[in-house]
Write a sequence for this structure.
């Protein structure tokens, strides 16, 4: 029999134990693999009935719940394109995504229904349905009475399975189109590299609207017929409650920073665990070492991004080097180049990280020029991350070529925040930077020059931004200066600002 090409069937062929829990919630609800199959079939029928055709987008902004994962699978089964949206996005942020992606169906939390339905009506979106955290909402009401089997729509390996929006350093957010093959190949590579088996039980405390929590963590579990302990969010008490039943955890560095501050973290508490993975932002070598000293576990750091899924990983068996992100995963090529020319640099030199492989996305939704600009003629994707490869072949990320702040694993693009601040009456100009933050890794910080005579204070700036920006993007501090340091080209020297405010949060 020929191998399936679509992600759902590539995952489902591994579900040999259908009675096994796919996930268990903190309050003890168990969703078995049989439930996953039947629940996602019912949701697939509901989507098809709402007119979702293969290739149509289904945009989802719901709180984390088991059904939200099933909805992702249901989208795959009807051949739709799943479009997850950060729950923190405001309505004005959502408007852009919906008008750009033109979904057939939008699914939101019941609390957001009224406002989103109005927006959908204005944008011509066919259906605005709801999904709550207690198996409730209008989508579930439609799905409940549907058959528990669904004859899936055939999908080719390079058909689009999901679109995830990533902001750009300039201009509009870009929708990264991820194919069935992108997601399946990455799940398989990680499962093998991290020695994942059906015996694994993952602590899942990440949000499920980004690559890390949705694909890396969830798809690897589904690929292996493994289980997860499904937590609504990161909470140290909950982590320690479930850890005696778990074998693996995946988190952003903030998880580990918080865990090492907790006196409960020790050898005993982690003795049932076999693997701790960190990614989405740099893990400080100091955090890595402290964690090892306290638990005997060396955190395995890996490196990825929305457009590519996971690119590199520290080894399972060899040295997990603090401050390094390891080796390219099997099947993925990585090189370091001279940013302007794309010429490969000798090993050890710092340059642009470029990657190529089955994990690399198909392009940006309806943006052929932007897509072309981020690929080399020989097919390598230009990540925007600066790095080097050491003598032992480990990749190190040493900085970013892109003007990006990563706060607690969330990307914040300064340009977006600067545009909002510049629009506040009394502001002449602004520069947004990331500076070291003990909890979030980097703290979003705004530096503002006021117009002559404008008497704005920090609270005025923050107040004016409320409701316009998702809360994680809000500047943690606003600093005022008379003028910016500039280079001879007139460009604001953000490196000088970062030095000036480097100790703001310490
Ligand atoms: C929450 N807040 C943040 C924040 N998260 N501020 C800055 N940065 C963040 N990351 C703000 C809230 O808006 C709120 O502000 C206050 O902090 C407390 O909110 P909270 O909900 O209690 O926060 P908390 O639960 O502690 O969340 C912190 C966190 C969470 C780090 C646990 O942000 C998180 O789970 N991050 C993971 C992000 C992630 O999954 N990234 C993967 C991207 S994929 P106020 O003002 O209301 O008090 C990717 C590719 C790859 O990058 O390689 O993986
Ligand atoms: P996103 O666009 O949200 O997927 O974020 C991807 C970016 O996160 C990458 O381009 C890197 O800049 C950063 N990133 C992910 N993992 C790591 C890591 N382990 N170390 C340093 N940076 C990382």
């Amino acid at each position: 029999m020929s191998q399936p090409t679509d992600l759902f069937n590539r995952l489902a062929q591994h579900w040999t134990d259908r009675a096994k829990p796919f996930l268990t919630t903190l309050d003890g609800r168990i969703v078995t693999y049989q439930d996953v199959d039947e629940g996602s079939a019912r949701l697939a029928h509901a989507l098809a009935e709402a007119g979702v055709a293969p290739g149509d987008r289904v945009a989802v902004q719901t709180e984390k719940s088991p059904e939200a994962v099933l909805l992702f699978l249901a989208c795959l089964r009807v051949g739709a394109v799943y479009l997850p949206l950060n729950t923190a996005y405001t309505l004005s942020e959502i408007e852009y995504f919906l008008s750009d992606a033109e979904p057939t169906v939008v699914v939101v939390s019941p609390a957001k229904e009224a406002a989103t339905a109005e927006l959908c009506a204005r944008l011509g979106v066919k259906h605005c349905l709801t999904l709550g955290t207690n198996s409730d909402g209008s989508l579930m009401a439609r799905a409940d009475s549907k058959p528990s089997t669904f004859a899936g729509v055939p999908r080719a390996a390079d058909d689009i399975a999901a679109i995830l929006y990533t902001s750009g350093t300039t201009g509009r957010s870009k929708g990264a189109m991820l194919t069935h093959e992108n997601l399946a190949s990455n799940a398989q590579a990680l499962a093998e590299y991290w020695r994942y088996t059906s015996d694994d039980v993952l602590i899942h405390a990440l949000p499920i609207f980004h690559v890390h929590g949705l694909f890396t963590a969830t798809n690897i579990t589904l690929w292996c017929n493994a289980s997860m302990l499904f937590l609504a969010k990161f909470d140290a008490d909950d982590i320690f409650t479930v850890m005696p039943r778990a074998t693996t955890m995946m988190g952003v560095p903030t998880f580990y920073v918080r865990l090492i501050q907790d006196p409960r973290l020790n050898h005993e508490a982690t003795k049932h665990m076999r693997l701790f993975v960190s990614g989405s932002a740099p893990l400080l070598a100091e955090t890595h070492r402290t964690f090892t000293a306290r638990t005997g576990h060396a955190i395995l750091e890996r490196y990825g991004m929305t457009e590519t899924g996971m690119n590199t990983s520290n080894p399972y068996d060899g040295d997990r080097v603090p401050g390094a992100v390891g080796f390219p995963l099997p099947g993925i090529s990585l090189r370091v180049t001279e940013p302007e020319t794309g010429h490969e640099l000798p090993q050890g030199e710092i340059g642009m990280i470029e990657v190529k492989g089955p994990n690399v996305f198909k392009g940006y939704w309806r943006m052929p020029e932007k897509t072309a600009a981020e690929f080399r003629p020989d097919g390598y994707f230009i990540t925007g991350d600066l790095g080097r490869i050491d003598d032992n072949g480990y990749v190190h990320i040493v900085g970013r070529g892109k003007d990006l702040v990563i706060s607690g694993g969330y990307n914040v693009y300064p340009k977006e925040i600067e545009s909002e601040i510049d629009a506040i009456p009394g502001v002449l100009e602004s520069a947004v930077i990331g500076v070291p933050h003990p909890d979030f890794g980097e703290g979003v910080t705004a530096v503002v020059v006021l117009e002559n005579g404008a008497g704005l204070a920090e609270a005025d700036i923050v107040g004016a931004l409320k409701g316009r920006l998702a809360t994680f993007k809000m500047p943690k501090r606003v600093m005022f200066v008379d003028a910016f340091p500039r280079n001879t080209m007139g460009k604001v020297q953000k490196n000088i600002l970062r030095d000036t405010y480097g100790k703001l949060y310490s």
Observations:
- DSSP finds 15 helices and 25 strands in the chain.
- The pocket of malonyl-coenzyme A (ligand 1) is lined by residues 206-207, 210-213, 233-234, 252, 254, 279-280, 304-306, 407-410, 440, 471-472 (CB under 6 Å).
- The first strand starts at residue 21 and ends at 25.
